[in-house]
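Tokens in:
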């Protein structure tokens, strides 16, 4: 990887898995995904073996289609598997929906086709700015085509951040995979989500709602910095 990308969490060519997690919620999502995939592989191999044996062995064929015991087993066993998957899934779902004592609130407004950010926790002086995708003709060395923006969303690490999301014109969706953030931006409605950034870095996302002709040209860039650097950034803007 090039030296100027070492701090950036981006997808790679032919990537099949998730991006590296930057929040506790995303770590739990990846762990849950791996557990479910492990169960899925066991079920797939077992069912495939059972089908092959049933087709090639007369005894297995008779036992599978005329046995009462197997009927009980393949009714109770899937139910047990679904329960084992459902409980951690519901736990994770409720944990992701919970907002616990946020230290910072950011309002995100989706427009056609850019994002607006508002920091309103600093008295009457609200910090507001728009974030546009950098055109290909203006990219500098190290910038990512269709992903980099002129103004990044700066947040401090190890801080609970609440995000209020709405739409200014049509439906949008604020999504950053590394932070497990994906929420609709609906005009006239304020949706709420949160994340806890564990480490510094630059994290990329995009609008995941088909919002018009330039839907694929409104990226999201979240930069996690230390608290000291974040304070200096806020003071420079005020």
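Residues out:
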């Amino acid at each position: 990887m090039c030296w100027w990308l070492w701090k950036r969490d981006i997808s790679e060519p032919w990537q099949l898995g998730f991006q590296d997690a930057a929040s506790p919620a995303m770590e739990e999502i990846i762990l849950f995904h791996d557990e479910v995939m492990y169960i899925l592989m066991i079920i797939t191999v077992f069912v495939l073996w059972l089908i092959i044996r049933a087709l090639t062995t007369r005894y297995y064929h008779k036992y599978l289609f005329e046995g009462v015991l197997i009927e009980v087993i393949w009714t109770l066993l899937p139910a047990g598997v679904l329960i084992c998957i459902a409980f951690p899934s519901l736990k994770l779902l409720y944990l992701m929906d919970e907002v616990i004592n946020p230290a910072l609130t950011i309002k995100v407004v989706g427009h056609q086709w850019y994002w607006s950010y508002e920091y309103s926790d600093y008295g009457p002086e609200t910090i507001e700015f728009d974030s546009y995708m950098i055109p290909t003709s203006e990219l500098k060395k190290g910038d990512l085509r269709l992903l980099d923006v002129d103004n990044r969303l700066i947040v401090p690490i190890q801080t609970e951040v609440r995000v209020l999301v709405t739409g200014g014109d049509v439906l949008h969706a604020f999504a950053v995979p590394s932070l497990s953030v994906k929420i609709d931006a609906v005009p006239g409605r304020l949706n709420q989500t949160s994340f806890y950034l564990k480490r510094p870095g630059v994290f990329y996302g995009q609008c995941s709602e088909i919002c018009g002709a330039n839907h694929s040209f409104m990226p999201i860039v979240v930069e996690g910095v230390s608290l000291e650097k974040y304070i200096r950034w806020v003071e420079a803007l005020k």
